[in-house]
Amino acid sequence: MQNKMELKINGKDYVLDVEPTMTLLELIRDRLGLTGAKDACGEGVCGACTVIMDGKAVNSCLVLAREAQGSEIITIEGLGKGSELDPLQEAFIQHGAVHCGYCMPGMILTAKALLDENPHPTTEQIKEAISGNICRCNGYVEIIEAIQLAANKEATE
Known about the structure:
Blueprint: E1 3-9, E2 12-18, H1 24-31, E3 50-53, E4 56-59, E5 72-74, H2 87-94, H3 104-117, H4 123-129, H5 140-156
Parallel strand pairs: 1-5
Antiparallel strand pairs: 1-2, 3-4, 3-5
Helix pairs in contact: 2-5
């Protein structure tokens, strides 16, 4: 049995039929081909599948697609404007915070949700916000500094 649902992803409206057990991650990756969110742990532990749903960072592997009915979703593919990167993406590149890239979409979206809610977070608030995102190949120092750099750029613009 499929359920029809409506949602907005990266500014585009969708009306889709979804299986009752389909996760938001499966919908985004498998149905829509937006592969920035990664299927890693499947248990909401690593943060690789993070997307922004109605302004909050969520693990899309734990959200049933039908729970996103009427929601607005942002994936890493929708963060920048065309070929122009979001300032947060630029800060990650400038600060050398991107290594293999596997965790980066989720890490950046978690940071984006944080900065949207709190434009001037402390180091401790940044650490707390990204605590659900595991980076397997980089220390977190560069990531934290990149988020601070993006926050400072936003403050001066």
